[in-house]
Amino acid sequence: MMKIALFGKNISENAVPYVQELIETLYSMQSEVSIYQPFYEILGTRITFPPDFTLFSTQAEIEQRVDFLFSIGGDGTFLEAVGLVGNSGIPVAGINIGHLGFLSGISKDLIIPALNALQKGEYHLEKRSLLLLETPQSLFAPVNYALNEVTVYKQNVMSLLTIKTWINGHFLNAYWADGLIIATPTGSTAYSLSCTGPILTPDSENFLITPIASHNLTVRPIVVRDNSIIRIAVEAKSENFLVSLDSRIESADQTTELHIRKAPFQINLLRLKDKNFFQTIREKLNWGLDNRN
After folding, report:
1. Among residues 81, 6, 77, 11, which one has the least CA distance to residue 42?
2. Residues whose CB falls within 8 Å of the CB of residue 149, separated by 6 or more in sequence, listed in order
3. What average pLDDT does the chain have?
4. What pLDDT, on the 0 to 100 scale, is given for residue 248?
5. What global pTM score does this model have?
6. What pLDDT digit, counting tens, does each position of 151-206 carry?
7. How is the chain split among helix, strand and coil, in percent rounded to 5?
8. What is the enclosing helix (H) or strand (E) of 82?
9. How far is residue 3's CA from residue 208's CA, in Å, rounded to a whole number?
10. Domains of the chain, earliest start first
11. Are the beta carbons of 285 and 100 closer than 8 angstroms?
């Protein structure tokens, strides 16, 4: 018997039938289902629920009590699910009812085949590294980690930042730019990719430092080992700047130094056996398609 937790945010009316199909299929498999309470409240009367499900709101309520957590939505929802799962080790599977969906690898049209494969054990777990952000002000605590990236960017749209960066105590550069992205291999296909950063394979054991709209055109992204400690100090004419961990944002002032390193735990990303990273990027980025007609 599978024990499944369901996590999501607001969904469109077009997505409701797929959520209904997911719940009905899980119960036909005699699975135990627990639903994230805010998600349950959002679904409301749009979904018909069986009588014997439970609700949860915190990591502690599902830790060591569920086999998998399904994130229902796009990659933004998946990133929030990672914050909820934390260091529990619960494997996370993304059901994509959003758009691009690098992380949410199960198509909404393939829910039933995916659940059948899961029940048969036809899946594997990919270990994904996270970034840990440490600051004197304890920004984002206690969820001060990110699966995709830590980003520093300007608050005043009219001026650039000076972003001084050190690697393991060695000065790297003073970036004069709109911002700077520190990305994991997972995050290399996210914001960093749109800023011309390279794609890293999930097992590459590297971090990626990518400037955002650098004023110096010779400055390019750089790849460093993921055992590096990255220190950042920011100078801004507006005195404040913005820091984001994935989709979460906070304001900081120039007394705030950022220390970024690899988190002491990893996330288990569930993949079906017929899927792999290279297949995903081919599909999502339309590689190999002849669009000349």
Report:
1. 11
2. 131, 181, 182, 183, 184, 187, 190, 191, 192, 244, 245, 246
3. 92
4. 95
5. 0.92
6. 999 988 888 999 999 999 999 999 999 999 999 999 999 999 999 999 999 999 99
7. 25, 35, 40
8. helix 75-85
9. 36
10. 3-129+266-285 (3.40.50.10330), 131-262 (2.60.200.30)
11. no
Tens of pLDDT, residue by residue over 66-111, are 999 999 998 999 999 999 999 999 999 999 986 667 888 888 888 9
Asked if residues 162 and 262 have their Cβ atoms less than 8 Å apart, the reply is no
Residues contacting 78, CB < 8 A, separation 6+: 71, 92, 94, 103, 104
Cα separation, 95 vs 111, whole angstroms: 8
| Residue 231, phi then psi, degrees to nearest 5 | -115, 135
Q: Give the dihedral of Cα atoms 92, 125, 226, 181; nearest 10 deg.
A: -40
Residue from 154, 172, 9, 171 nearest 77 by CA: 9
75 catalytically annotated? yes
Distance CA 30, CA 33 (A): 9
> Alpha carbon of 227 to those of 135, 150, 176: distances in Å?
18, 16, 26
Which one is catalytic: 52, 67, 75, 290?
A: 75
Q: At what angle do helices 16-28 and 111-119 cross, to 10 degrees?
A: 30
Tell me the DSSP string of 203-219: TS-EEEEEEES-SSTT-
